[in-house]
Amino acid sequence: MIKLDIINEVVHRTGITKTKAEAAVETVFESMKRSLAQGDRIELRGFGVFNVRPRKTGIGRNPRTGAEVSIPPGKAVRFKPGKELQSID
């Protein structure tokens, strides 16, 4: 599923115009990005939790040359599915 599929589903279920649905979906995604960038946690009941965790520094290898490469510390977005999402068959 891609963003366009989500927009089309919103149009189908609500009957609003595609332009308004696109603006609504885009607004939701932008607000989620902004919250995660600030380090906030996003909890969607019945779906799951998004949060930002620090990533440790490490040493990787260049696959072509085999040379060691230092990987700087950073942040990574993690998703933990909720109970309802885990029980999908």
Structural notes for this entry:
- The chain folds into two domains: 1-40; 41-89, IHF-like DNA-binding proteins (HU Protein, Chain A, Irregular).
- The mean pLDDT is 94.
- A three-stranded antiparallel β-sheet has the order 1-2-5. It has a two-stranded antiparallel ribbon with strand order 3-4.
- It is 40% helix and 30% strand.
- A hairpin with a 6-residue loop joins strand 3 (58-61) and strand 4.
- The protein contains three helices and five strands; from the N terminus they run ααβββββα.
- The chain has helices at residues 3-14, 18-37, 83-86; strands at residues 42-44, 48-55, 58-61, 68-71, 74-81.
- Helix 1 crosses helix 2.
- By secondary structure, it is α+β, with helices and mostly antiparallel strands.
- The chain is elongated.
- It starts with a helix and ends with a helix.
Attribute tags:
single chain; 89 residues; alpha+beta; HU Protein, Chain A; 2 domains; 3-stranded antiparallel sheet; two-stranded antiparallel ribbon; 3 helices; 30% strand
CATH class of the largest domain: Few Secondary Structures
Count of spatially separate domains: 2
Main beta-sheet annotation? 3 strands, antiparallel
**Low-pLDDT sequence parts:** none
The termini sit apart by 18 Å
CATH homolog superfamily of the largest domain: IHF-like DNA-binding proteins
Strand order of the largest sheet: 1-2-5
- Rg measurement, Å: 19 Å
Shape: elongated
